[in-house]
Amino acid sequence: MQSEIKPAHIPVPDSAVKSRLAGLFREIWKYRLSYLFMAPFAVSFFLFILVPVMAAVGLSFTYFNTIETPRFSGWDNYQFMLSQDVLLLKHALPNTLTFALLVGPGGYIASFLLAWLIAQIPDRVRIWFVLAFYAPSLAGAVVMNIIWQPMLSGDRIGYLNSFLLKMGWIDEPQLWVLDPKYLMMSMVLVTMWSSMGVGFLAMLAGILNVDRQLYEAARIDGIKSRLQEIWYITIPYMKPQMLFASVMAIVGAFKAGDIGEQLSGLKPTPEYAGHTIHNHISDFGLIRYEMGYAAALSVVLLLMIYGFNRLSWRLFGSKGDE
Amino acid sequence: MNVTNSLKRLRVRRSFKLFRMDRTQITLMILLTAGGVFMILPLVYIFNHALKPYSELFLFPPRIFVQEPTLSNFTEFFVVLRDSTIPITRFLFNSLIVTGIGTFMVIIVSSLCAYPLAKHRFPGHKIAFSIIILSLMFVPEAMQIPRYVVVARLGIMDTYWGHILPHIAAPVSVFLMKQFMDQVPTELLEAGKLDGAREWTVFYRIVMPICMPAVATSAILTFQSIWNDASTSVLFMQNDAMKTFPYFLSTITNNLANQVARQGAAAAAALIMFLPTLIVFLVFQRKVISTMAHSGIK
């Protein structure tokens, strides 16, 4: 029996594979122009992003102190990370998650609402409002810190403290950026303030892009309130921009790190209250010169960001766009 | 009745002739203005800070508004310039060349890449897009050393290419443009092809004009990131004459982090550094808004 089946079966997959390969090549040849269009990006992407990322992934399996040649160490870095790195497990990981889960969705929703509101005002003045709300992103992180320092300053003169004291809501000034209890809250607040970045610009462009005839048509079909308009027309129509903004929001929230150190002016932040994975990475990579371990941390962070993106795509059910 | 009513409404509208607004728009404007004033503080600060005399530069807690404006910071800035061995115009020239060519190339390369990703179903398009998205999630710190090796091997240290090429692959721009190109109706492209347009013409004449908002937005982003980036100067340039303006700026303040000297010059330089970003933002954002108001995808 067996000897009968064998000779019958072998030639079939062989020719199938061959014809499929030939088909693939024919397909690739048919789309040669597409590849040509992508070629300039592909080359520079390969050289300056893919190769360095791959090298970093490779380094994560080594001990590398940036001076000696890397020494292969297998899964050691990852093992250390999961079993002995107390700072990571006790502070950096929970801090990053708290921060990202508040700032990610919060910033995303705020950008959408503001973009929508700005789209409703007349064309001629719109640009000044866009400028105003984009200003924190435009001016950069350093300036942001200087604006918030007087607000959150820990003595009586700090605007927030003096306001709360006057209202009688607190009895003594609070150390908003130095007290581990409040640092995370301040970080979230300040980041939300500056979260109108690229996602905001993209969503604004997306909202303005919606064909106005659609709204008129919908009005005839019985859509009454503005809320219904947003839900049934604006959001479905600008799905690509919504997806872009959500990815950027998640990536931004997880990659953030400098804000805690800038606000408190301390490195590391008081009792590691604002210590995020990104701080942890630059701590190991740029201060302790343990590049191998820093690379391993980056890989884990990448996996986390990717996981949360998958989760959000599943939540919004936009599988087709992936 | 109806006619008189609408006439009346028309007259009410006329009274707000300047912007032609209705009542909800006015309420909205007031609310947004209140929020906007708070948000625009960083810009106000940059301008005020450059005009502060030394007595105000170091106030704690820092003040946003200047009490006694002075131009002495700018004079000090020019003194610093006079003392530097390489003329400031050289740094500015480098920065302009690098940012100008860099932004232009990023736009071209990204849009060329985004078009097939959005509109062609070639083998591997899903994987290619996923890899681009994944790459934007990686933290740059761990990539620094491998990237240095790549730049050194390519032999582009101490050349303008060393500034420009590392910026050319911009996953965010590709992602943004691809998302906008997804919205271009495929029938439109098919129609163009039926009329005898070739792939390049379809891309250049149909897709690009519709995606102008995405192009302008990524131009703003790219300009901002290249203009402010001092890292290529630090990492890839040994020759001081090849370094850029942000690097020069950091040398004014870096060595004297907690000192008083030169802080005035630094404040003035920060304003000079910021102005091009502001102008580019206004020009391109205006483009986003105006293309929207008049065309849109039909």
From TrEMBL, chain A:
The chain crosses the membrane at residues 35-64, 97-118, 125-148, 182-210, 230-254, 291-309. It is a multi-pass membrane protein. It comes from the Bacteria. The keyword Amino-acid biosynthesis does not apply. Residues 93-312 form the ABC transmembrane type-1 domain. It is found in: Cell membrane. The keyword Membrane applies. One of its GO terms (cellular component) is plasma membrane. GO terms for biological process: transmembrane transport. Keywords: Cell membrane, Membrane, Transmembrane, Transmembrane helix, Transport. Belongs to the binding-protein-dependent transport system permease family. This is Sugar ABC transporter permease. The lineage of its organism: Bacteria, Bacillati, Bacillota, Bacilli, Bacillales.
TrEMBL record, chain B:
One of its GO terms (biological process) is transmembrane transport. It is a multi-pass membrane protein. It comes from the Bacteria. Residues 92-284 form the ABC transmembrane type-1 domain. Keywords: Cell membrane, Membrane, Transmembrane, Transmembrane helix, Transport. The chain crosses the membrane at residues 26-47, 91-115, 127-148, 202-227, 264-284. It is found in: Cell membrane. Its main location: membrane. The keyword Cell membrane applies. PROSITE patterns: ABC_TM1. CDD domains: TM_PBP2. One of its GO terms (cellular component) is plasma membrane. It holds the Pfam family BPD_transp_1. Belongs to the binding-protein-dependent transport system permease family. PANTHER family: ABC TRANSPORTER PERMEASE PROTEIN MG189-RELATED-RELATED, BINDING-PROTEIN-DEPENDENT TRANSPORT SYSTEMS INNER MEMBRANE COMPONENT. This is Carbohydrate ABC transporter permease. It comes from Paenibacillus lemnae.
